[in-house]
Design brief:
single chain; FAD/NAD(P)-binding domain; seven-stranded mixed beta sheet; five-stranded parallel beta sheet; 21 strands
């Protein structure tokens, strides 16, 4: 579909066909707006995308599990009718160097017995920990569905929001209050140390606290990221993670189908060169091919660096806002290695093709191992012995690989965007891939014999190919100074920007990253509040 030249008029132009951009467009069109979505790549989905990298193998190139997709979006857009089907991902299996393992599954009783094998005390504490985390999730969850207040304002409506959060905090039992404050300030390991003694359990659980951040498991602030990932919800089941049948791209395609049904026009291979600004307000966009499209409202789902510094240009923006955007931290820290396999990995600690291969397999044998992986990254190297989160989606969803073959998806930390002087990702890329394969081979020696294709995705690839600045998978770190009313900049957390009628609707806004869709939905509701329902 080549973009039509001329100046077609729309009510809203949405930049970026990632899942947040598509959610944003679908909500706006359902309210009667004439909307066009412009995506630079040939496929929709942004980082939530499935591509046939090797013939017959459908690979979720970047994002690979679903857990945070908001139930109200699934409901409002009726995504199951548009083909969304989530298959549960059962459990987490952590092989250990001594030949033992830790295998937590979705069955609570079994997991307790498994933890008791390592520590009776931890099995007791696991129940308490689960209850405490559920309380924390209950406290934070309404915040995920609210537009962040601006604490610097005297607007009574904004102050009411702050009061609402304050009252809910006040109403928590004192234990939960302490937990909440600790979650916001402590490191993942220090927080888990209060509950557990088993090293491998703490290491594997702390992994959730570092995903998408340039921090180690012992860095303060990582306990909150742990909670962010703990809120996974599929069909209302807490802590449930899953695969989308057909790969992660199936989620984006289902949202796109709902958007098209509502009347959204979607164009691929339509990269944006410039956002048009006249007298402090946006009037539309210029495409890379020189075409101009006009609309009174532009909604950008790409990150602040691309939106403001590349597409708008500093000259159109207030100086202090530009400074804030320059200060905003991306610091990509992860890579992906996707493999096409001729068989299944055989773990030394549990040989054979058992149920342990159907969940996540985590190379996180100890807290020290996790922290040492971070030590490498601090000095500009990729981890010699990385943390790896692996899944084999083809066991649950055979449609993604040819019969008898499998897809192995590995999320890897750390792969810092900025390598030390003298190193570049263009030359280090395959070495990084080899390190990941060698690390897996320590636990599953047959891995090298069954690889028939390998795709290495570095932070530089994420930036070049997927438009994620510095390769950050969340469009900016989920660190405390970049959350809630500080995301992406103080005073600009309500999806609006210093340019009139230019909005942000991507992961760089509250509530942040993951396949959640919440930023897209919340931004759409704010746009409708400002512009009224219906076409203009």
């Amino acid at each position: 579909m080549s973009p039509v030249s001329g100046n077609s008029n729309y009510d809203v132009i949405v930049i970026g066909g990632g899942h947040n951009g598509l959610v944003n467009a679908a909500y706006l069109a359902r309210a009667g707006k004439k909307v066009v979505v412009l995506e630079r790549r040939h496929v929709l989905g942004g980082a939530a995308v499935t591509e046939e990298v090797f013939p017959g193998f459908k690979i979720s190139v970047c994002s690979y599990v679903v857990s945070l997709l908001r139930p109200e979006i699934i409901r409002d857009l009726d995504l199951p009718r548009h083909g969304l089907e989530i298959l549960p991902l059962d459990g987490t299996f952590t092989p250990m160097p001594n030949g033992d393992y830790l295998w937590r599954v979705n069955d609570h009783g079994k997991t307790r017995r498994e933890i008791a094998r390592h520590s009776r005390l931890d099995a007791e504490a696991y129940d308490e920990f689960g209850k405490a985390m559920q309380q924390m999730c209950r406290f934070v969850k309404p915040i995920l569905s609210m537009v962040p207040p601006d604490p610097a304002t005297l607007n009574p409506r904004e102050l009411m929001k702050l009061l609402f959060i304050g009252r809910r905090f006040q109403a928590l039992p004192s234990d939960d209050k302490y937990n909440q404050v600790q979650l916001m300030t402590m490191s993942a390991v220090d927080f888990l140390d209060q509950w557990f003694e088993t090293d491998v359990l703490k290491a594997t659980m702390s992994a959730s606290g570092i995903i998408g951040t340039f921090l180690g498991v012992r860095s303060p602030g990582t306990a909150y990221v742990l909670l962010h990932h703990y809120m996974g919800e599929i069909d209302g089941a807490f802590r449930a993670w899953g695969f989308a049948r057909g790969g992660t791209g199936a989620i984006s395609n289902a949202i796109a189908s709902a958007a098209r049904e509502a009347g959204v026009e979607i164009r691929t291979q339509a990269g944006i060169a410039k956002i048009l600004v006249k007298n402090g307000r946006t009037t539309g966009v210029v495409l890379e091919n020189g075409d101009e499209l006009h609309a009174p409202v532009v909604s950008s789902s790409v990150d602040p660096n691309l939106t403001f510094l590349k597409m708008v240009g500093e000259s159109e923006l207030p100086g202090e806002f530009v400074e804030e955007i320059r200060r905003y931290k991306f610091r990509g820290s992860s890579g992906k290695v996707n493999m096409a396999l001729d068989g299944l990995p055989e773990f030394k600690c549990m040989p054979g093709a058992g149920a342990h291969l159907r969940g996540a397999m985590s190379i996180s044998p100890s807290v020290d191992y996790m922290e040492q992986a971070y030590d490498d990254a601090k000095y500009g190297n990729f981890s010699r012995r990385p943390y790896i989160d692996m899944v084999i989606p083809s066991l649950t969803d055979p449609s993604v690989a040819p019969p008898g073959k499998h897809v192995l998806s590995c999320f890897v930390q750390y792969a810092p965007y900025k390598l030390r002087p003298g190193l570049s990702w263009d030359t280090e890329k395959e070495k990084f891939g080899d390190t990941v394969v060698n690390t897996i081979a320590e636990y599953a020696p047959n891995i090298k014999d069954i690889i028939i294709g390998r795709q290495v995705v570095t932070p530089l690839d994420l930036e070049r190919e997927f438009g994620l600045t510095q390769g950050n998978i969340f469009q900016g770190e989920l660190s405390l100074e970049q959350l809630f009313f500080l995301r992406p900049a103080p005073g600009w957390a309500q999806y609006r920007t210093p340019i009139k009628n230019l909005y942000m609707c991507g992961s760089a806004t509250h509530p942040g990253g993951g396949i959640m869709g919440a930023p897209g939905r919340l931004a759409a509701l704010e746009i409708l509040k400002d512009t009224g329902n219906g076409a203009h």
